[in-house]
Design goal:
The complex is a heterodimer of chains A (342) and B (293). With 342 residues, chain A is mainly α. Chain A has 15 helices and 4 strands. Chain A has 3 domains: 32 residues, no CATH class; 27 residues, no CATH class; 215 residues, MetI-like fold. In chain A, the strands form 2 sheets. In chain A, strands 1-4 form a two-stranded antiparallel sheet. In chain A, α11 crosses α12 and α14 crosses α15. Chain A is globular. By secondary structure, chain B is mostly helical. Chain B folds into 2 domains: 61 residues, no CATH class; 217 residues, MetI-like fold (Orthogonal Bundle). Chain B contains 16 helices and no strands. In chain B, α9 runs antiparallel to α12 and α9 packs across α16. Chain B starts with 9 loop residues before the first helix and ends with a helix. The chains are: A mainly alpha (342), B mainly alpha (293). Chains A and B meet through α1, α6, α7, α8 and α9 of A and α1, α6, α7, α8 and α9 of B.
Chain lengths: 342, 293
Amino acid sequence: MPNKTFFWFFLPTGLAMILFIGLPIISTGIQSFYAQHDQVVKEVKKCDPFGCTVSIVVDQEKTSKIREEKPLGKFNGFGTYVDRNHLAVEEIGNFWNETNSFGEFVDQVTNLPFYKALIFTLTYCLFVTPNVLLLGFIIALSLNAVTRRIRGPLIFGTILPMIVTPLVGSLVLFWMIDAEGIIGANLQMLMDDPYLSLKSSKTLTWITIIIYGIWHHSPFAFVVFYAALQTVPQEPVEAAIIDGASRWQRVRHIVLPHIYPVVTFVALISLMDNFRVFEPIIGFSAEGSAQSLSWLIYDNLVNEEVILFGSAAATSMMTIVGIAILLAPVLIRTWKEFRTAR
Amino acid sequence: MEYGLDKRSNALKIFNTTFIIVWLLVACFPFIWTFWGSFKVRADFFSRADWWYAITAFNTLLETGGKFTTDAYSQAWTEGEFWKASRNTVIVTFFVVTISLFLGTLGAYALSRSTRNYAFWILIAALIFRAMPHITLVSGYLFPFFQLQIWGILPTTIVVLVAINQPFTLWLLYSFFKTVPKELDESALIDGCSYFQAFRHIIMPVMWPGVITAGLFSLMLAYNDFTVTALLLNQENHTMVPKIQSYLGTNQHEGNLMWAVSAVVSATAPLFMLVMFFQRQVISGLTAGAVKG
């Protein structure tokens, strides 16, 4: 296709992506260097028969004037990045000097908002992704063994958790797990502890969200693995059976190598999706004990008094860096393949 | 696996069947339970006394005189203004799907027929864009949108959702276009068609399965979106998913939980019907990128 034709065909979608994905990333970058204005204060002298007092009040007029003049805020450089709510460089330095043991130091650092969120996000990725691959693969293997006639409805039932939006999916589970719901009430009875509640314990909340993640993402892994299983050639499998290979050996040495490229694809996609975990935290009302990077950004953006653009943007930029690190191995590999293919 | 030579042991068969039944229960029961519970009153579905009330409908019987009630639905749809939210969802979904498909088919066709290097790099860039968490993009939008005074209205959200959706649509349609033989449009070009005519009259008619699949995914994205719609739309223009969240209540005001339950069922039912109808296309779409590429 000539360049000119390509240009006209690609222009609309290219423009949409540049304007609404490319530019916002740049806009986020710029915003992250600005912070909202401080409120202008003035001293007010108030006199009454008993004497004069000086109090400090916010000068609303001046404050709103400054905000109007420079809506982006004041230039802050990397200030937002290193403040207490983000990388907290200074605080970490202090903790390092003040704490006696390494354990205590780690404890202090993981209580800082950004690190807390980072640790939850990484834990979530770390537990959900492998389990999704495993469960998806097992479901695919066992559905593949079922009579072809009833597979359709079974597949429909299997993919339900995936097609609902995460907020709805987590709500539906939350209403059951809640102390007043069917599972929660039965757990209380089983454990003989009337105060057992998933909300009350941090560990239990994390486990719930991770289980939700596996429940929500496994169907995707299943669908891809199931399709890949249909393409496994029959001859080597039959040869292996004649040679006396056990079922496990067949899966291990024939099926798995065949679908290996698909496994990396699913791992990559679910890693990307898990890294942006956010809606389940709202669905499970777990803000208290589980915060993710995306949730931090959301929280800044729905701030009641003044939207913390700078703070949200700084967290966003660091999230993007995190995504870049996750994607780097894949991109490097693709580039190498591309170079050798030329 | 159904291999002719393979004699399946009975133990394995039983294990397999049990596993599938357990998994299906895990996957489907929450939805069945929520559907069932949406016809009860709050005191039954969220019972402090005994969860069994949700089945026997003890309080529902007391409060409404029947075992099932549709109060939650009628209240959420009228008083809760869920009708408005669903109307907004229909508008957003319709335009997002139409525009996405229009832009996506043009772009993906060009990518699939180009042999240059830049086509490869564009696809890689699209992959990187696909990885961006939506909330980071939203944090980039908010400030300029406030300044331009286009925040809160449906058209802005539609355009944003179309753009966010483009990388995935491009990849999906690209892999479908690749399966259409090049000779088809080349012969049309030799006969004197322009590229656009070949695209319009020769390629598009054989592309319907791919277009339907891409359309379904755009639809699910627009229909299911929470991040963009919750932050870019004002209260008045909220679509279904942010509306459901608003029923949950916050620290400041108490929500109406049964409204949320019935709204969840109302929002999920059409989606399930659609997927039931188009199951084949959904699955082919999910696997297109993985198996063929």
